[in-house]
Amino acid sequence: MTRKSNLLIVAGCVVSIAAIQQPDPPLRGFTAESSRIQRDWETRFRAMPDPARIREMLRLLSARPIHLGSPYQKANAERLRDSLRAWGWQAELEEYSVLFPTPKERVLEMVAPTRFVARIDEPTLREDVSTAQKSEQLPTYNSYSGEGDVTAPLVYVNYGTPADYDELEKRGISVRGAIVIARYGGSWRGIKPKVAYERGAVGCLIYSDPKDDGFAQGEVYPAGPWRPKDGVQRGSVMDMPVHPGDPLTPNIGSTKDAKRLDMKDAATIMKIPVMPISYADAQPMLAAMTGPVAPEAWRGGLPITYRIGPGAARVRLKLAFNWNQTPLYNVIAKIPGSTWPDEWVMRGNHMDGWVNGAADPLSGLVAELEEARALGALLKQGWRPKRTIVYMAWDGEEHGLIGSTEWAEHHASELQAKAVMYVNTDGNGRGYLNAEGSHYLENLVNAVAREIPDPQTRGTVWKRWQAAVIARGDARAKTEARGARADLRIGALGSGSDYTPFIQHLGIPTLNMGFGGEGGGGVYHSIYDTFEWYTRYADTSFVYGRALAQTVGTIIMRVASAEVLPFQFDQLVETARGYAGELKALRDGEAAKIAEVNRMHDEGVYAATTDPLNPLQPPKREALAPVLEFSMVDNALDSLQRASQRYERAKAAAVAQNLANVALNALNGLLSKADQEMLLADGLPKRPWFKHSLYAPGLYTGYGVKTMPGVREAIDNHDWQTANVQLGKVAGALEKEAMMVSRAAALLERRSIVP
Fold first, then answer.
1. Angle CA(439)–CA(442)–CA(446) in degrees, nearest 5?
2. Domains in the chain, start-ordered, CATH in brackets?
3. Which pTM does this prediction carry?
């Protein structure tokens, strides 16, 4: 080896050592010095979550049924409050009085062509003692169903979506005066009776088909994780896309003295009786049906010929309920902030289940509690967050996001003044990270995920997430995940959990997070969602509970102590621009469909059918789709992009100068209103409770998100005038956002706030 090569090796070692010794770049929202301190506290925090403690807490909390109003649910609320106090938190119960129906009478029987009485009950299992707590369990039912005693022909409607009813209409099949039977899936359960009622049905049955949730997926419980033949998915059918929460107190907290609507005026209670059933109860009724054979895509996993009806099968459905005012208990705990106590960083998970609720919701709640314990331990070591941290455990989520909605409505003014972020979880499982939320929080999620060790691989949570996107994403997502984009995308928020009132009603920056995607199971909302099931088939070693606590807890700590809230608005611009592009494509697609239907109508050419006895109906002529005013939204997005670029330049310069002379109170006060700027004063068409211009659950999808919802749903309905009006409102909201970001940039530039 030559002397020259030796010198090169030495020089290379010096460079490598220098690279290793380079300090980490500052965390977003922190100076170099405050980053060093923050990283130290975060490292200490992430060492604390303990899988054994998480396991024991899950065993304790899921020992008895925990539905709204149950004795064990109240005991758990008190247990959580007392534990939080022992860990150093200021913790209280906040009580509300809410309308909560429970079954008084349930009858389901087939009366023709033969008689069959449905079991409508889940049998206990000797392998799982928790299933035997019959006296404490809620029976199988859908809360906020309508009442009635109806006997009618049975019609099979597949998943019961609007598209499925359109297919029936093409075939000349009506559900008017019928009881429909739909399978779970395809949309949120509450959409199925809602559409059935609008199409004239008098009752609705919802069953879990084994193709989707049973033996076709794998071994059923207890031999495997999937839904057994008598398993039933309970659930609320409240019309939550109109508004969640207590049906009698929209927009106000349901305190004991709140002014309540008459039940006849409650818009979100279903108008027809609805009942969930098992595939064991569904099979005899489906097998007795006559009429056309169902399309191939409608056929499930039962060993029968799936037919649509109406025909020989007639069913009687009778439901009556106790409509009681029931006490609801939220647990609210705080660690006061040392610098900005009137800025709140919030985190929640619900604590009520349909029965024992080990997976849903307690697997997420126990991670939250382990975070709270660890944060309490840091307090004893001298750590203090700059902002107040608020941890919540919600009651009544399963019946319509009731606890979170009533609390948010009750404290609306205070929350809009103080809240800077809300992070939600709702159960947890095995697999990779899932995240949805306000898109200027995307970089924050990615940054933290890069620092959390993955429970299964030798990499990080981020690397596992990246691998999942590459394996399962669409073509664009795969390309971006391989390096075309620095950060992985987070999803948009629809509904189905307690984040809804915070982002979509109050405009509070929000995230919803959890691990999953690699476990299977079909015990959702049944008596089989138990500690025994969870420890056998879900997060068996509770390492994903630890990962969730580490991930969410780090996000909470980082936002709670950042000098500048770590929001990145260029990612919001990019995402919103994508939504606008989707709307343009949607409008063009609908215009092409209308033109083709009109051509078929004018030429008398109708779609062919494979069933000559059941020909498809001729299409109806429609006015052509006009050009929509997308330029308003495009211009507003250009304004927001320029403001975001200015903000990033100003932030980098201000951090380089250690944020000297920056008015942090005023700056963070602006940033915390980032989602409030995008609220619509009069809300969305037909549902003013939902106010966000970018995110909402679909009126006919339920949980599924509709982005730029006012415009998108108007285009779906071919309501072109409303589409243009809503485009103007979205543009106005984005212009307000751009002005806010410009004002924040001006503060970082140490200028007076621009008008």
1. 170
2. 101-322 (3.50.30.30), 569-607+616-748 (1.20.930.40)
3. 0.94
